[in-house]
Each structure stands twice: as structure tokens, then as C-alpha cells.
Amino acid sequence: MEKTSSGTNDVVTEALDKYSDMVRRICFMYLKNEADVEDIFQNVFLKLLQNKKPFENDAHEKAWLCRVTINECKDFHKSFFRKNTCSIDDLEIPIEDKSEEGVLREVLSLPQKYRNVIYLFYFEDYSVPEIAVILGRNQNTIHTHLRRAKAILKNKLRGFDDGNYF
Description:
Layout: H1 8-31, H2 34-50, H3 58-78, H4 80-83, H5 88-91, H6 100-108, H7 112-123, H8 128-135, H9 139-157
Helix pairs in contact: 1-2, 1-3, 2-3, 7-9, 8-9
């Protein structure tokens, strides 16, 4: 997608329409807090606005947004502010839920490396080679993480109403 100085706002508006849900979901998977998600969401699209390099195509733009979103979330976790605050969500007592919300809760409880792969594979429909490029990892590593994540989820989801989530 090519942009000029006059078309920059149009490019960002179009990207917001296409990718805002994806960026929010990635943020939520990392941060699990709506206020933090909003902050990172704004940072990601601000970076898109400041990005001077044109994208080759929509897939390139989508992959760039995924990578920037993941990096912003990781940077947020490393920040001084984050290390010295406590989320209200962390204080709640978890409730056993056998619905789709319960499944989502189990996915969110996975270690980060598995959660990323599950999200990109199942929710964004990326292939293993594409995930390897986005995350900067070997394809075999992605296959291993995907297999392990599925095994963990199968064990955690045993006894749920419908056992065919994966």
C-alpha cells in the first residue's frame, strides 16, 4: 500500500477499518487489561502514521502491524510503570467456566510463546511459515510450540461440554 503526504490519513483510516480488531485482540492477549490495550492500540496506529516506508501489499501491512503490536506489548511489560503497579484483574478469584469464555481464559493462561502461536494460527489464519517470519523464529520451533500448546489446552479443556475445540 503506497502513501503520500496527502494520503497518509486515508492509509491509517483504512488500516484502522481493516486491522483494529486484530490489533486489539493481540494487545488483549498480552495485556489482559482494557485500559492498557487502549494505550498500546493508540501507540501502534501512531507508529503506522509515522511510518514513512510504503507497504508492498495488504499482507505486508498486516504482518507489520502484528509485529509492531507484539513489540509494543513486550515493551510495555518491561516498562518501569508496569513493574510497579498491580492490576485489579490480578486480584480477582478465577471462576471455573465451561463456556467459550472459559476456553478463552485457558488460551490466555498459556505461556506467552504458546499463546502467540495459537492466536496467529487459529484467530488470524496465518500458516506456520508466516508465523515463523512474524515472530522471527524457526518453522520447526513454531510447529513444536503449536503442538505443545494444543496438548496443554486439550488437558485443560477436558470435561468441557464440547471437546472439539482444537
